[in-house]
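Worked example

This section walks through a single chain of length 507. The input is the sequence exactly as stored; nothing has been trimmed or padded.
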Amino acid sequence: MAEMVEKDAATRQIEILKIEETSAPKYAGDDELVDKSGNIRRIPIASTDPNDPLNFSKWRKLGVLICCCWFSIFSLVLVGGLGPSLPVFIELYAPQGHSVESIFNLTTYPSSVMAGAIGAAKCNSYGTKMVCRILQGFATGAIESVLPLIISDMTFLDERGFFFSIYWGSQNTINAVFLISISYLVAATSWRWFYWLLTILGGFGTIMGVLLLAETRYQRSPMSLNGQIVHTDEFGVTSVLSDAEAVQRFGTQNETNENSPPSAQKIYLQHLKLFQGTALNPGRVEAGAFYKMILSCSSPAVVWAILSSSISPGIEIAMSLTYGTVLEKLFHWSPASVGLINVGMLRASVISTLWAGLIGEKINLWLARRRKGTHIPKDSLIILIIPSIISAIGIVVFAAAAMLPQKHSSWGLSWVSWTLFEFGFIVILITTTHFAAPGPALVGVIGMKYIISFGASYGITLMVSKFNYLQAFMILFAIFTLIFVLGIPVYILNPKWRAYIGKKHKN
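Given that input, the structure is written out below as tokens.
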């Protein structure tokens, strides 16, 4: 079995990576995604090692993906699932002297510091609950940063959009189901069962992770293919080098090739070991990761990705903090029915998964073929044009319906505005939080987005009390629109930045 995997991997490399048919990518991050014959290239280059995560079987990859989705889904539900039940906590803590703003902070603070579920379920005081919520936020932040890297480790560039669309789409679909049912659960039992249920599901996910979640970190050596040196570093960046460049970068070529002796395949239990050993030169890798995280922030595209992926969840949290009060007090919904607003999220999740996964993938391939096979990172901006416009419309509809309930239907607020905004929100998450070259930039974007989104979600109660629903959400609409309009100069300027960095590294 191992020999068949090695043979298939070697054959795939030789047949698909015919480097002499196309010129090397102009800059790091540009990838020859399509060859002259129209065939899709598999990037990064898989080794002949059967233990390479890129060579995992479909069932192994499916198990890893399910674990990633499970942890992501229920960690985010734990942190952000209080929206439908906020009126319950207002009734609980307002008599103790806590303002509505401070009660809203139970949701916004964990979003800023991203388990404490057991403590939150058993606590009685506001202060203890806040501490437990912040602990939940820390755990969620770590999970959110690591899981996309695991998915990137085991996927090729041409299929990465599809995997991430499943990851984010399933997260938001199941999240919607929980948000719909949470208000009924709290109404039928108590708010404590919200935490107990997620504690049980988190425990089941831990068991599933022990059984299915294989190690995906893999050290790739330079490979000699068709007379050129191909190397994918620990951050997923693939480079095509000459012999001289390989010697300069690595000190020695030290490459493997299609005729290298096969590696022994690990048994399944070996893949599941909690400790797989340290990476080569771990101190250098760690220092390099921090350096590249800082360096990536000089990229206009990365800064824009942080801003765009921050404002969207910030506005989503702001909406979730207000729709419970709006639907109960202005539209006279029952507390148990408030969660039904998230029915719109179900539809948005399905449509956005198809858009970012299938349609987005085809757009990227079409653009790559127009450039004689070269995929450029800025292509992802094109996929966002329609979703960002639709999200902006959703914000306006939500603001108008909340401001003038006598002129608008509650279903216009709950189904139309929420569906429109969530469609764009999910596509933005999928598109701006996966990169052709994953690693430090990915961690930076995912880590920073919750810190910046805190401003939008925290400020909504202050703006509503100072102005009104329409003015408050129009301010958020203006910020949202400005950020996405900045995508136009980013589309133009980022290639110039990449050219500058490429020349600097070459020299």
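What to look for: The radius of gyration is 24 Å.
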